[in-house]
Amino acid sequence: MSGHSKWSSIKHKKAAADAKRGKIFTRLIKEITFAARIGGGDISGNARLRTAIDEAKAENMPQDNIKRAIQKGTGELPGVSYEEVIYEGYGPGGVAIFVEAVTDNKNRTTPEIKQLLSKHGGHLGESNSVSWMFEKKGYFVIQRKAIAEEVLMETVLEAGAEDISVDGDKYEVFASPNSYESVKGALEKKGIAIEVSQIEMIPQNRVRIEGKKAQQLLNLLEILEDHEDIQHVYANFDMDESEISE
User: Fold this and answer.
1) HSE-CB of 93 using CA atoms within 13 angstroms
2) DSSP strand pairing (237-238 vs 207-208)
3) Strand ranges inside 92-182, DSSP E
4) Plot region of 191 (φ>0 → left; ψ -120 to 50 → alpha; else → beta)
5) Per-residue pLDDT for 246 more than 50?
6) Would you say 138 and 124 are in contact if contact means Cβ atoms under 8 Å apart?
7) CA 205-115-28 angle, 5° bins
8) 38 and 144 fall within a common domain
9) For residues 34 and 80, is the Cβ–Cβ distance under 8 A?
């Protein structure tokens, strides 16, 4: 069972809970603002902004919130200045953890992330200590009941996807970042419901983990996801379905 896809499924399910709606909006507003600041407010020329807006719309964020976040990023409205920070380290069982954060105060965020890792069986590493284990890819999750595998394969490969795999009751589709938009467009044109569509850091090798360390790791990943400055958390683990408490 793919550690990457399982954690993606877990966190997207958790993100759907109404109790976390405010945190989701906060994270997405930061991402939209930062994306607009570094790439401009025109989505046709800013793929990162376009992806962030798509995710915000999927979470039913009001259009006015999206517009204001863009304007704060482009300087049309006053706002906080954010910077992107990458954190790399290890969790329980030697699992590599790659964290993307957007913060207005790196001097506050860095020691907080370091403390969270240390408190929950991990530690912060040096720059590039684990990034070489991950590769940036377009990543899609589709329910198997939504479409036959042969049809899905033909659709996405013609659009430039690199690979398709089956994980339980879901398909995973992988594409290069440059092919992300074309694959997504092909799926939408075909009317295929997409459960997850993001550009993510995909682990190229995985660490088997079980028992107490598996529970410690899942707890750590959830705590990191809940941090207000963290946008995305990636980890290279494999574990049995029985380790997951749904």
Assistant:
1) 21
2) parallel
3) 96-103, 123-124, 134-143, 161-167, 170-175
4) left
5) no
6) no
7) 70
8) no
9) no
Collapsing DSSP states into helix, strand and coil, what is residue 99?
Answer: strand
Range of the structural domain that residue 163 is part of = 134-203
Q: What is the pLDDT of residues 56-87, one digit of tens each?
A: 998 889 999 999 999 999 999 888 889 999 99
CATH number of the domain bearing residue 168: 3.30.70.980
Residue 137's φ and ψ, nearest 5 degrees, are -140, 155
- The per-residue pLDDT for range 81-116, each reduced to its tens digit, is 899 999 999 999 999 999 999 999 999 999 999 999
- Compute the distance between CA of residue 196 and CA of residue 203 in angstroms, rounded to an integer: 17
Question: In this model, does residue 170 exceed pLDDT 80?
Answer: yes
> 115-151 burial, b if ≥16 CB within 10 A, otherwise e?
ebbeebbbebbeeeebbebbeebbbbbbeeebbeeee
Residue with tokens 């913060």: 103
**Full-model pTM:** 0.83
* Nearest one of 18, 44, 47 to 31, comparing CA atoms: 47
Q: How many domains does the chain have?
A: 3
126-133 long-range contacts (CB < 8 A, ≥24 apart) are 126/88, 127/86, 127/88, 128/88, 129/88, 129/89, 130/88, 130/89, 130/90, 130/96, 130/97, 130/98, 130/236, 131/86, 131/88, 131/98, 133/96, 133/98, 133/203, 133/204, 133/205, 133/236
For tokens 């958390």, what's the residue? 233
Output DSSP code: residue 194.
Answer: P
